[in-house]
Amino acid sequence: MDIFGGLLSGFHNVFQPQVLFYCFVGVFIGTLVGVLPGIGPVGAMSILLPSTFGLPPATSIIMLAGIYYGAQYGGSTTSILVNIPGEASSVVTCIDGYQMAKRGRAGPALGISAFGSFIGGTFSIIALMFLVYPLAGVAVKFGPPEFFALMCLAMTVLTYLTSGSVINAVFMVLLGLILGVVGMDPISGMPRFVFGCTTLLDGVGMVPVVMGLFGIAEVLTNLDESQGKVMFQTRVKDLFPNLQDWKRSIGPIWRASVMGFFLGILPGGGAAMSTFLSYTTEKRLSKHPEEFGHGAIEGVAGPETANNAAAGGAFVPLLALGIPPTAIMALLLGALVIHGVTPGPLLLSQHPEIFWGVVASMYIGNVMLLGLNLPLIGMWVKVLKIPYRLLMPLILLCCLIGSYAENESGMSIVIMVIFGVVGYILRKFHFESAPLILAFILGPIMETNFRNSLIMSDGSFAIFVTKPISLILLIISALLFMSTGFSTYRKTKTKVIDESESEG
Amino acid sequence: MRKKSLIGLVLVVAFALCLGLDMAKPVWAQQKFPSRPITIFVTFAPGGISDITARIWARFMEKYLPGATVVVDHKPGGGGVVGYTFVANARPDGYTLLNSGDFFTPILEGTATYKVEDLAVIAQVALNGCVLAVGPDAPWKTFQEFVDYAKKNPGAKWAHQGVGTSVYFRTQNLNKQAGLKLIGVPMKGDSEIISALLGKHVAIGSLSAGMAKAQADAGKLRILFSFDQAKGFGLDPSLPYMATMFPNAPDIEVGLYLVAPKNTPKDVMDILEKTLEKMTKDPEFISETMRINQMVSFVPGKVVMEQRIPKKMELVRSIMKEEGLIK
Prior knowledge:
The complex is a heterodimer.
Chain A: H1 3-14, H2 17-35, H3 41-48, H4 57-82, H5 91-102, H6 106-141, H7 144-158, H8 166-181, E1 183-184, E2 191-192, H9 206-225, H10 243-265, H11 270-285, H12 298-313, H13 315-321, H14 327-338, H15 347-350, H16 352-383, H17 388-407, H18 410-428, H19 433-456, H20 463-466, H21 468-503
Antiparallel strand pairs in A: 1-2
Chain B: H1 2-31, E1 38-42, H2 49-64, E2 70-74, H3 81-88, E3 96-100, H4 105-109, E4 119-128, E5 130-134, H5 143-152, E6 157-160, H6 166-178, E7 183-186, H7 190-198, E8 204-208, H8 209-217, E9 222-226, H9 242-245, E10 255-261, H10 266-279, H11 283-291, E11 294-300, H12 301-323
Helix pairs in contact in B: 2-10, 6-12
């Protein structure tokens, strides 16, 4: 397989006015969709799918793919500005991004997020080009036991996401797990905790919960605190990250690119998981871990890079094997089938123009997105100057539209409001919502894989330790868990000693 | 004064005419069916095989129903329940339709708020092809070899799309008929089944013909068995199928229907049924359908509702009882 020849032919095909136009349309719509909370790339892609029927297959995939990775760029905007994640993969960005905005550093946050997304996206395309076939083999090696072990690892690091009490985070994780139980049992298909309500059959729904816990709760909290206040009154000093920011972010960006790409290959919550694995890695490696949760730029640079790298990684199983790892990729697969192209392992040999066209377009798309997002930072920052009495209703409206648009069901709005109140109460008691959301997403995956593993092993738990990948992941989780426990023990011990000494 | 009362009279008559016309509109609308876009709802997320199928049907329906615009919309959730319930409760005017397979499973499970009679099948348009496939390095080259292996090793694992799906019940039916004691591992869709087979996590998988064929052509999977006669679905005609291996066994064909809410006016149903009948004779439609490894198979709605569905329901009910899914 001649990589450079293929890439050149891909660029040649992409540098046509029509193709460039559709690439731009895709990334532009993707950015918009990513910014608007609740309306996700899947919805936009499915609405625009019929409009691609008259186009050649490569062009239509280029546009749809553009929507997908464009949304990863836009998702961070609302996370940083108003603490409302646009996607599951933007939840972690809220933690430090919003704090940075509150300190008048929204511009650098948005900027580093755009640059990080660009670097992550480009890195993942390069890696995709060279590693697509070997890596596809790795993706299928992950069966239920390996996934369960990976989820264990993810659960262990969830507690790092909090800047407050670890016990509170654990409580949130448990709550998230319980919420994840509602819906159809993944193995037997029988409804659980559905109370006869058809809408709950698919679970409580991530979008209403996120809109409620982050959006509505934010509005309620602000109603409580302010009277005609504005987000902050200090002048917004810099619009772009300065040298200091770059020095701190470069490491996280590189680490997150690698992490995001490899995790994106795996089916399931690859993008979301990569964001908080990146966050916790940076927190552990940082010289100032206490800054995390209060506006550490690494906490924005890492996760934002990771989710774009994961978007690139998700193309690996699709292009190499014809197996889509996520619902969005499944939509791209459907689009290919509609155009008469059956994606599978033969895609590269039968339709090289599609493979290389998509790869080449991703380079160009990322450049376009950087060009789109950077100048907009100035505009976005002005949003923060809107007085609360106008901004809050706007947020409320976006949340309402977002949660209703998913299912056209009134139940989603009810759920959103309930969780808005719950989120408000949680904030009053200094509980953080991020671990809850992430446990809510990962819990069902963990359960399904655990039970499937036991089915495969006829009930024996040995399967988790006899499979090498699973064993390694479990050992890492155990080590991480013990080290957290140990350091908390030491901190508490030191505190007790200090207190007794000061009393003595 | 005469002038005024004349104007008044004219106004009243005009008003009455308008009212009359307004009331007559439904009759007119009926005569001019379709006068609005028709929406086919799909019970799964966009991009999946149901979506693709519905879009093909929509295109050809427009061809054979002059003046019609047919669009595809989605109501995913609950394994189809959300979509079925939605259409069962929709206005029966022929503009809200459903593309689905067998919608009676939730009724048997008890999760449905609708009854079989709430949905009126216009016609069966096609059959979905299902196959059994193994990984590329698997030791079985023919289905008979696998059957022998499975009989000697009860408890071999097979991957399926989830308890309650048509493919699941069809394969369980086969298990029963062949006396195989396989243990099912649920997956979320064909993609996961293919991953599981490639990664050697399960022995055999039961999935839709289209996805399997794409992999098989690349040498990544080996298709051992097709439930329906393989030729009509664009598969290798030498594959064994239910009728050859188990001649007297009942089978659960996975029919794909176009469905309307009950009480849709008869002439609307007839127009739609005739459109579908013409569509299924179109050679381009047949080849498009075969390209996604389904087979065109037109069965009038009446036959489906009165014969096919009750028979299938009984078979599925007995399987569910045996598995303890229902009492």
